Amino acid sequence: MFTFMFATGIENSTPTIRGGRERVDELEKCRFYHRWRTDFELVQDLGLHFLRYGPPIHKTWLADRRYDWAFADETFSDLKAKDVLPIVDLCHFGVPDWVGNFQNPDFPRLFEHYARDFAIRYPWIQLFTPINEMFICATFSARWGWWNEQLSSDTAFVTALKHIVKANVLAMRAILEVRPDAIFIQSESSEYFHADSPEAILGAERFNRERFLSLDLNYGHDVDARTYRYLLENGMTAEEYSFFLENHLRRHCVMGTDYYQTNEHRVWEDGTTSGSGEVFGYDEITRQYFNRYRLPVMHTETNISEGPNGDEAVYWLWKEWANVLRIRNDGIPIVGFTWYSLTDQVDWDSALRENNGRVNPLGLYDLDRNPRAVGRAFKALVANWNKLLATQSVCLALPVFLPSQQNDAIVRAQQEYARSLLSVDRVAEGGSEPFALPRIEAEPDAPG
After folding, report:
1. Distance in Å from the first CA to the final CA of the chain
2. Which residue spans within 97-195 are E strands per DSSP?
3. Domain-located, residue 109
4. Which residues of the chain have pLDDT under 50?
5. Does a structural domain hold residue 445?
6. Residues of 315-336 as b/e, b for ≥16 C-beta within 10 angstroms?
7. CATH number at residue 308
8. pLDDT per residue over 30-68, tens digit each?
9. Structural domain of 52
């Protein structure tokens, strides 16, 4: 049982660009295929038991119900041996060539098969992000024309969004059939749009309504009349909308909120936007999302570039952690914090729109696996706060268990109880309880 989860991540982004002719493989760019053993040792050295990571979808998912599990078997086996529990990203911004892109209406059904078969092969894995940042994926692929289908219309955006979220919901249900106590940490970008002038207010209000769309659908939250009309006018049917209201799985979810300096925007009179930098910050924006969904929260992504002074990332880490503590102290159930990623990223400065090979100094370690200043600061933060947080919240503990605990009687009892709850998921919509799995007594929490 865990009262707080410190984590980092290894990004497995795989969008396509240039009309689908070129793939961006962040695992390749960050040398993970060659350095993964070292990377997992670094996770251990940081004192972490949780890692956002998933297999490269385009190399693993070869066709419907056909897979190459070799690399996944090797990496997940090593994580299990190290007692690190992955939060598995099954789909991170891209799909295999044979699927095409997110306009494909067969994608939800196909992805459901992939998720179920993954869970069957790795039954010890409990935490999942089936599809990462669904709103960003649909926006960049089908509204801004940057990735995958590279379309730029409201109809393309709504089509991508409904397929992505339906695939996410079906994947959750399929995983629960195999692992009934699975928990889904839905990493999503938390956004806010600021009006620059009175003439920009209507545009900002629209953007601020639509920023919730992926989570509204995923969690079965009714949208307002204007947003509903927008969905219907751009390709979503009433029956499709009803699917999301009737098939959500809130009971099994933690709301993952990602926050960077780029998450806040300035809306201009002509409807265009530009970055505003940090105005409200993680605390205020997360409150807005929590008040809408009333779910446990995990800060699932943040970073900033190590700047010319060398301490910019360390200061950002301190500031984000201060925001997490403020939320926690005010009674919002925040259960985890993540610096993303373990190593520097490549081509994040172009939002993965170009394969320039430009290294962005955002990681806890550089690409030679040397620690950055923020890596040393993060390791100290984990060591200093871990035990205190574990003793502060006796009544709030996620029923999450490490690989070494999987055969304990308490875990088997938890799984049986969770299985008995699956039959009531469909009638649980509209429930106000943030997390319905039981708070069972357990031995003192393991570190991490």
Report:
1. 11
2. 127-131, 183-189, 192-195
3. yes
4. 426-448
5. no
6. ebbebbbebbebbbeeebbbbb
7. 3.20.20.80
8. 999 999 999 999 999 999 999 999 999 999 999 999 999
9. 5-427
